[in-house]
Design brief:
The chain is mainly beta and about 140 residues long. The chain has helices spanning about 15-20, 25-35, and strands at about 5-15, 40-45, 50-55, 60-65, 70-75, 80-85, 90-95, 105-110, 115-120, 125-135. The protein has a 10-stranded antiparallel sheet with strand order 4-3-2-1-10-9-8-7-6-5. A hairpin with a 5-residue loop joins strand 5 (about 70-75) and strand 6. The longest helix is centred in the N-terminal third of the chain and has 9 residues, at about 25-35. The protein starts with 5 loop residues before the first strand and ends with a strand. This is Cellular retinoic acid-binding protein 2.
């Protein structure tokens, strides 16, 4: 898992705006998110992992221990119970909404050498899949 650690820059994002729209993100924030080039930094210290995603506008941090549930407020404002698990070369994050009518999501970050493929889905919306690709910098 040491191979997961490092900095990665997003090089593509398929269906990202559609994904954000399905989550209820407003037009201005969707546009800002789609034109930015985020850098994702993955680190670990004493069993606590951090995935920090930075753009010129904002920095977001996800801190977790693999296999331990935690409470999270997502960047789009959803209150969720989250769980990150390890599946081979993939970090799988499941975010279960605490309130009815709020989206639950799943993200799979697949680490392949100098590339990370992040696949995002929304529970109950099987037709919409967002795929973002990151390259190590």
């Amino acid at each position: 898992m040491d191979s997961f650690k490092g900095k990665y820059e997003r090089v593509s994002a398929d269906n990202y705006e559609e994904f954000l729209k399905a989550l209820g993100v407003g037009l201005l924030l969707r546009k800002a998110a789609t034109v930015s080039t985020p850098v994702m930094e993955v680190s670990e210290e004493s069993g606590t992992w951090t995935i920090k995603t930075s753009t010129s506008l904002k920095t977001m941090e996800l801190k977790f221990k693999i296999g331990e549930e935690f409470e999270e407020t997502t960047q789009d404002g959803r209150e969720v119970t989250a769980l990150v698990t390890l599946d081979g070369n993939k970090l799988v994050t499941v975010q279960k909404a605490k309130k009815d009518g709020v989206a639950s999501t799943k993200s799979i970050r697949e680490f392949n050498g100098d590339e990370v493929v992040c696949t995002l889905t929304i529970d109950g919306n099987d037709d919409l899949v967002c795929v973002q690709k990151f390259k190590r910098v």
